Amino acid sequence: MNHPSPAGLGLDVEAIRADFPILHTQVHDRPLVYLDNAATCQKPRAVIESERHYYETLNANIHRGVHLLSQRATDAYEASREAVRALLNAPATQDIIFTRGTTEAINLVAQSWGRSTLRPGDEILVTHMEHHSNIVPWQLLCEQTGAVLKVVPIDERGVLELDALDSLLTSRTRLFAMTHVSNALGTVNPVAELVARARQVGALTLVDGAQAIAHVAVDVQAIDCDFYAFSAHKLYGPTGVGVLYGRRELLEQMPPWQGGGDMIALVRFSGSRWNHLPYKFEAGTPNIAGGVALKAAIDYVRTLGIDAIAAYEAGLLDYASQRARDFPGLRVVGEAPGKAAILSFVLEGIHPHDIGTILDMEGVAIRTGHHCAMPVMERYGIPATARASFAFYNTRAEVDALFTALAKVQKLFRG
User: Fold this and answer.
1) Is cis: bond before 31, omega within 30 of 0?
2) Distance (Å, whole) CA 222 – CA 242
3) Distance of CA 376 to CAs 63, 339, 384, Å?
4) 246 φ, ψ to 5°?
5) Confidence of residue 266 (pLDDT cuts 50, 70, 90)
6) How far from the centroid of its chain's Cα atoms is residue 325's Cα?
């Protein structure tokens, strides 16, 4: 399913768009221009068909049945785990825990590793650009254990102030939890450097890869992080499926977070014994169809090539950024060098929610609000931004449609 361009360079975007049925629909009698990919990506036909195929031909519970359907479903589910391992370059499939998403993966670490490890006065470090899912679980953990949450500041461009690490990373730091790519700003953090800095003081590291996984190559061994989390739906896969990579020796030591079926080896009223990895952390029947379809999403992205995807999206962002610079009254929020394909902005005198509503009537879908990153909005002294986020199936014509619609917004509000 390789889609080279006619000139043999980059991606054949029109052929790619043909793989995504929803891109050919209309909203408000206008062609859909979908620019909300940081919230969730659309799904290629291969992913949709994978789920349908599972329910039509494989539907059975996994790991427990001896009948043929159960064996086939188990094989398909575990093939997806291997696909994730290869995508992340993790050492083994035992290091790959399936969850419901990035949020659950982070909460798993907080409640399993954190509650069994942290003591009053211990410190957890996060950055000022984190999604709420990488803030609130640590706040809850601090309330439970007496640990203290500290924050790495960001500058006006949306870049981490790395000099602050000299005072923030200390012998009391137990965990540094960081986003790989900011969902509100597009900043790509130097996670390997941050992990190395944390390791110098003996701190563990967790990387929130929700916004990175579809846009940059991820190698957990090269990053050398202790935990890495992402969601399938931001990798063109199903909702309700996520991944936690964990360093084996840590996962072995951590107690189960949830109890129930499949995470046990033996249950007696006098006590229970836990299953081996990764199943110790996978209680209950999972989203099997979604897990199976995650492999189809990974295969699709890897066939296109993450380097080709990144190069195409960078070109699209450059084009959109130039249009933004030339647009009167528009201010971009977050201008980190080399950022991912996210354009957050405000229009002078117009609330982002009004922008989003009018753009929707023009067929342009963007996200408006605080993007589950309220501290970022507070940093810039604004209540919200409008956010256009791009994927490899978006085009320059769609960027033009965005700015044509924004001109209509301005005309409506300024008469």
Assistant:
1) no
2) 21
3) 43, 16, 9
4) -140, 145
5) confident
6) 28
CA distance 138 to 151: 12
Please spell the DSSP secondary structure of 130-190, one letter per residue: --GGGTHHHHHHHHHH--EEEEE-B-TTS-B-GGGHHHHS-TTEEEEEEESB-TTT--B--
- For tokens 């043999």, the residue is 8
Rounded distance between C-alpha atoms, residue 310 and residue 333, angstroms: 21
Cα R_g (the chain), whole angstroms = 22
Q: What average pLDDT does the structure give for the chain?
A: 96
Residue 246 DSSP code: E
Residue 285: CB partners within 8 Å, gap ≥ 6?
A: 61, 62, 261, 262
Compute the average pLDDT of residues 231-237. Answer: 98
Which of 41, 142, 225, 372 is labelled catalytic? Answer: 372
Q: Which domains does the chain have, with CATH numbers?
A: 13-40+305-414 (3.90.1150.10), 49-302 (3.40.640.10)
pLDDT digits (tens, 9 = 90+) for 334-375: 999 999 999 999 999 999 999 999 999 999 999 999 999 999
Tell me, what's the pLDDT at 274? 87
Residue 126 has pLDDT above 90, yes or no: yes
Structure tokens at 41: 């990506």
225 assigned to active site: no
